Input
Amino acid sequence: MTGEAPEAPPPWWPVTTTKFVVMTLGTLGMYQYFWIWENWRRLHQLRGEAVSPMWRVMFAPFTSYRLFDLARDSGREQNVWRGWSAVGVAAVYFIAHIALFVGVPAWFTGAVLLLPVLPVQITMAKVNAKVAPNAPRNGTITPANFAMLVGGALLTAAAYSYDSQVDELLKEWNP
Output
């Protein structure tokens, strides 16, 4: 026995940024809600944060600021924070959700939801690497992830087809 204390678990959901980007884009943004769920669940388990991950996901556009603020603070504590603002990211995230309802093409939703949270994920991954350098990183696409990507591809194709049909119908319509 070496007498060394065991390594602390990673404070954030340990998904690699590459997998986060692929899964978010490939599932029309739905993976990001899983990411939010897992991060709130982890905060509840490791820190005893009094939160309900389900409600945080259900109201993500309104509750995201706190998650982003905690991530920024942990990045600052570990000297990996790169200057993004939790208020700014939360505001852009909220506006991205509004944009989904007012005309962003359905097949583009993954990118719209990804861009605001990408700096947060990068910070979380860097904090995890610093706090728990030997912990697994969750960077492989599992069979369940692959099934989600196939479903996302099918939804993307359907959404693109639907958007194109609506555009054609609107061009033909003369009130």
Remarks:
- The chain has one domain: 17-172.
- Helices lie at 17-26, 30-47, 53-58, 60-77, 86-101, 109-131, 143-172.
